[in-house]
Amino acid sequence: MAATVETISPLSRVGRIVRENPVIPLVLLLFALIALLNVLQPGIFNERWVGNTIRFAMPLAMLAACQTLTMLTGGIDLSAGVAATVSAFVVATLTPLVGGPMAIMLALGAAVLIGLVNGFGVGICRVHPLIMTLGTGLIATGCLQVYQRYVINTGSEIPWFFEFLGTGRTLGMPNGLYLFVPFAILIIWGLRRTGFGRLLYAIGANENATRLSGVRSWQVLMALYTLSGLIAGITGLLYVGIIRAPSLSLANSLMLPSVAAAVIGGTSIFGGRGTYSGTIVGALILTVLGTLLTLLQIPEGARRLLFGAIILAVTALYVRITDQS
Amino acid sequence: MTRVLARYGWSLGLLAILAILLVATRLIQPNFGASGLDSLARAALPFAFATVGMGIVVIAGGIDLSIASIMAVAGVVAALLMHQMGDANAGWVVLIVLTRVPDIVVTLAMLFVWEGVALLILNAPGGAAAPWLRELVVGAVTIPGLPPELTSWLPRALVVLIAFVVIFWLPLRRSKLGLSIYAIGSDQHAAFRSGVPIGLTRVAAYGFAGLFAALGGLSITLSTGIGEPIAGPYLMASVAAVVLGGVALTGGKGGLLGPIIAVFILRTLRLDLTLLSVDPNVTTIIEGTIMVAVVMAGGLLAMRGRR
Amino acid sequence: QDYTIGVSNTVQGNGWREEMICAIKAQALKSGEVASLNIAHRNTDAAGQLEDIRNLIQAGVDAIVVNPANPEGINAAIKEATDAGIVVVAVDQAVTEPSAYVVSNNQEEYGYLGAKWLFEQIGGEGSVVYMRGAAGASADNDRDKGFKRALAEYPGVKVAQEVFTGWQQDQGKQQILDYLATGVAFDGVWTSGIDNVIVDAFVESGAPLVPIVGADNAGFVGQLGSVEGLVGAAVTNPGSIGAAGVTVALNILKGEKPAEQTVLVTPALWDNVSEEGKASIAAAQNPNLDPEWPVSVSIADYTTYSTDEIIACKGPGE
Amino acid sequence: MTEAAAGRVVLDARGVAKRFGAVAALKDASLTVKAGEIVALMGANGAGKSTFVKILTGALRPDSGHIHIDGQESRFTSPAQARRAGIMPVYQEPSLIPDLDVGDNLRLVDAPIEPFRHWVDALGITNLRLDDTISQLPLATLRILDLALTLAKEPKVLMLDEMTAALPTDLVERVLTVIRGQADAGRTVIYISHRFAEIARVCDRASVLRDGVTVGDFVIEPGIEEKIVELMLGGVPTRAEVTGAHIRAVSSAETPRLRVSQLAAGSRLADVSFELRKGEVLGVVALEGQGQDELFDVLAGFRRAQGGTIEVDGKAASFGHPADAIAKGLTLVPGDRKDALLMLRSVRENIALPLLARPSKWGAIPMREEAARVTGAVERLQIDMRAQAEVRRLSGGNQQKVTIGRWVAAGVETLLLFDPTRGIDVRTKHQIYPLLRELAAQGASILFYTSELGEIPLACDRAIVIFGGRIVDVIDAEAATEQNLMRAAYGLTEKERAASSSAEARP
Ligand SMILES: Nc1ncnc2c1ncn2[C@@H]1O[C@H](COP(=O)(O)OP(=O)(O)OP(=O)(O)O)[C@@H](O)[C@H]1O
Ligand SMILES: Nc1ncnc2c1ncn2[C@@H]1O[C@H](COP(=O)(O)OP(=O)(O)OP(=O)(O)O)[C@@H](O)[C@H]1O
Ligand SMILES: [Mg+2]
Ligand SMILES: [Mg+2]
């Protein structure tokens, strides 16, 4: 009996590797989905399709970065979608008036402002992030509507740089990767190797303990939500470059999927646990899943049902494999 | 006394806000009266049911993102069954069927699933509600033997709401199951060690949430007379009301009285903004600001209390 | 005379609905007969609209212009309003409550007209992508009826793919790009108003253009005039229908009831193939307009404001 | 007497094994207890005691092994089942529901109220109300409530896992009396503690675990301690001789590191003044609730004082946030490790946390330097790193070491230790005392509250005694015998008697 306890079976070793690298099962799942797609629609796995998938997964993954970062501290950013929309709408409507660079500054400024207000509320006034960001989301939507009325007749134009990123390709891959790859590397590195990244995990794991260690958590939260606003703003710029049609609800539809991407990617909504690489894979999975369901000729109701059921199955399986309890 | 104040202080504060808002409504619109209260109560009904459902789950330390979609499913199923079979009782079958069993993160996925189910059942608004059931939530209460002037101020919708909450929640709150719901929300580890069956309790909490969400969906069908397969704005509204009502999103704290008052506050606020004919976009801004401000003020008060 | 008019609308943040609100404001101001507008404009469902209408009744308005969330769901409140002597005009979509007046775009006709043109254009033979609006919405359902009616008339036409865009630009674009990338074969695209991103997707991915049906949104109408090789048609669906509602309501308040309880505004179709259509498109061009806004900003006989006035989006007392 | 009462075997566990991933927490644990017996379960930190208790009470499932209750094979799958069979634990962490009040907690586990009240009284908690919310009660009270609640349910087998670790001496006395009474009434008690004195007082036998294996079973008798310690630690006892030699002559002319005068806070800390010199370890002795919690909280910047002054290195200081105190070199190791640890994160992240606190350190982490510091601290405190990926998987004692190691890695000037040896095994304790001396010799100043009076002469230069929120005595290490300290802690010194009679009017 003692002997069986001492030896580690190969299966449990695999289990451990997987547990320590939770991205692996996610990547496997992604490939399984692609394989399934290729069976259903032979020849789909071509360069163009891969490019398109990545193109639409990028903004989702970026917005999901807002969720991942805030969820690590036990928060959430429900205003991210609105912030992205604000930034996209502002840049498209202001470019004809004040020129690209200035419009970009103003657009990002608006998004950062939303983040700052969130940071103030969450960090200093201790409002629950869900309520705070929901509230600022509402406020920003209202402001955007009011703003919209003054720019109905100014036309819209998207700075060429973002059209280049959003619609252009290099070697078949979308140009958006020029923005996204450095961004992703920065976030992944930042979470693992910077003090700020560590503090996000720490605050989510036990805010009291960070206080005890001399962390003023309001500083971290303030910086975090402002950063989240900035990321959302950049996402909005990239997204409007991809869609090329500013609207008052442009990125709002990315909101729930961005939370889903983070959750599928293994980020705990209670804080303290998660990785951005997981989130990226989560975003890819959602995008591929979307395509899969679009191409299946089934009623819309069944489509959504399947979408939910698959997410359910993935998370259930994932939680089991990685043994989170 | 101070203990009572400490425990119910938040609800009392909300009640005061509600009273002020109602007085303000009366000042803005001197004609505001029984019919106004009635429509307020009817408007609040689905929100209140959703909030009660959400509240129970949140107290148990979870969150139910699928609450609005469940309401849609309940609504369309009820509308369809009543339409086809002309049998109002079918509405109640729904409640039992929908008392379902998901888990915490799972509810996000369930949101999509229920959305899909609602669309599969009814791909466009339709169906019908049984007239006698619709009467149930319309108008004022009439109690035989009492002069109607006395009861004309009491909307039926409010009575229905109170009846359901009293029937289900009050006994539950004091029961062992109710305590267990608080326990798993407060500290799951400690609850497990105290012998609370975590899984079963969670199932029960989500079950009750499903029940109330179904009631909410039913109440929508009763007020609109049809079933709508697209979920309304009840998810975020219910979360907001739960938090405004003093239930901690971390679980274990608070009751359902506060959230229900919060629902009425939010509805009255909207009424007042309409009466004042405020620019609609500004309305959104005001609603967001007030929501944040109330919670912020609560946080600051709590912080000063601790000092 | 100074009337107070209430407005209830349940979709926010959509160009078409924003134009509707602006049209209502502009017409109310222009008429000179409206003292104030009381607008309930938010994202909600039928139950929420019931609440809004009841709040408007409480506010004591003289008339209510409502874009119904669905045809039956708000009947109860409409009945309460008309019982209280308030004139109720449903715009854009019909309601089944008989006491209300209806000034509506004919959504079934909208679906039929575009589909018929498209099927004709591909020679009555082939397959099309059918990009619908939001699942479960009643306008989408009506358009679907029209589309199916046309489909029945052209047995040679098949639907290659049917999908809901949710009236979201980004969704529509991703879906069409998926079709283009995966080699789904089709000869035409029918859209429920998510149109300019579809053209963009073809252009960006360098795929050969096929005939595309959209709505009269400024962006798409611009593309019909300018995109090389694009064959397409815009079906009008004027947001200014809201202004028509105001006019009808004011007339009723002044005692001039319309002959029929229901006034249907039949959509027009502007294609860039026929001369007539080309002329309409050329006339409707307005590159400065928000691309989501319909270009048909006025309805003859019902609206009296100028284009600048609707763009200014100012109501009485602002 | 015990021999006579003990008869029937109540619980018999054989060959219990439990593995968590790579860590074999238990390999071959056995335990037999009879009715009316108190058996001590002993072992170093991480030996597997808590795991064993959790398995016996259904909170964990064993990988293998057999457990018989009253001769019947039992396989509990939840604490609820074990409770029904009369096997009831008091775990180290309070198992009461923080957001419910006392009455609701009773109802939750169906504990009868009258016996509960009886036990609460017997255990020395006065003025408890049934509508007190648990989260607002002090830790020591919670431990007692946990025990009272369990006793009220009349357990067949009572298991106490380091129940006394957080208790002040007076309450420990009462607990020991009560459990002795339980055994005399024919019940069975399994008792875990790292304090041999307690075990010698009440236990009949001791069963020793080492690295998950039961290595011995002894009848408690005088002189057995050395043997048990030797067996527990699996080698020569490493009891470092630290008494006496370390007491430094400190000149009182020097500016003290910390000068506290007339400090008052909350309802309990009334008026405390003392000096903590450079290179000094100053003990703090107090019974439960005499204001020591408030004192440490104020000094660490967790709460504001209502009166009095704090001077650091001769300069007046006031702290609005722990960060302010840390900036002045004052760092706290709190009594409750749950407050201090990031349970989901690794040992390394936990230890390195203070290094990253200031915004200027938010940038790239110097990984090598950090690794060196962390390794240094881990080695100095001998932290068991087998389960290092998540601190919650460490045994209780090792978790406690991480809370201290953090400040060892960050470098200490003034360390405020609130009962740091709580739940730490005898070997590690005897590593910690010299560590404190060493830190002091390097110039650190240490304020050291302990609930175990015997530690004072082992580690401190002097000790202050707090009673009723005031300092009632200052005792030098030489004079700090347990009796002296105890008398002082109860406010029974000559000085205090004189003082209190002269100041009777004080509230
Ligand atoms: N859930 C778990 N996951 C991984 N390792 C665990 C887990 N629980 C316990 N261990 C490991 O099992 C071993 C025994 O732990 P246990 O808590 O039983 O020790 P203990 O004897 O109670 O020690 P202490 O005196 O410090 O409380 C330790 O090495 C611990 O790290
Ligand atoms: N959430 C958890 N998941 C896995 N293991 C846990 C968890 N919480 C605690 N543990 C295990 O419990 C043991 C210590 O935790 P805890 O302090 O709660 O136990 P205890 O027995 O009450 O205290 P002590 O070990 O000090 O006697 C460790 O061995 C740890 O591995
Ligand atoms: Mg232990
Ligand atoms: Mg322990």
From TrEMBL, chain A:
Subcellular location field: Cell membrane
Keywords: Cell inner membrane, Cell membrane, Membrane, Transmembrane, Transmembrane helix, Transport
Xref: InterPro entries: ABC_transp_permease
Name of this chain's protein: Monosaccharide ABC transporter membrane protein, CUT2 family
A family per Pfam: BPD_transp_2
CDD domains registered for this protein in UniProt: TM_PBP1_transp_AraH_like (cd06579)
GO cellular component, one term: plasma membrane
UniProtKB/TrEMBL annotation, chain B:
Membrane topology, from the record: Multi-pass membrane protein
Membrane-spanning ranges: 6-28, 40-59, 65-83, 90-114, 153-172, 203-224, 230-249, 256-276, 282-303
InterPro entries: ABC_transp_permease
Keyword Cell membrane among UniProt keywords: yes
Pfam families noted in UniProt: BPD_transp_2
Subcellular location, record wording: Cell membrane
Entry keyword set: Cell membrane, Membrane, Transmembrane, Transmembrane helix
Record-given protein name: Ribose ABC transporter permease
Organism of provenance: Devosia psychrophila
Source lineage: Bacteria, Pseudomonadati, Pseudomonadota, Alphaproteobacteria, Hyphomicrobiales
Automatic annotation (TrEMBL), chain D:
GO molecular function: ATP binding; ATP hydrolysis activity
Span of domain ABC transporter: 11-236, 247-493
Keyword annotations of the record: ATP-binding, Cell membrane, Membrane, Nucleotide-binding, Repeat, Sugar transport, Translocase, Transport
Gene3D superfamilies named in the record: P-loop containing nucleotide triphosphate hydrolases
A Pfam family: ABC_tran
Keyword Translocase listed: yes
Domain of life per record: Bacteria
Family statement drawn from the similarity comment of this UniProt entry: Belongs to the ABC transporter superfamily.
Protein name listed in UniProt: Monosaccharide ABC transporter ATP-binding protein, CUT2 family
Organism: Devosia psychrophila
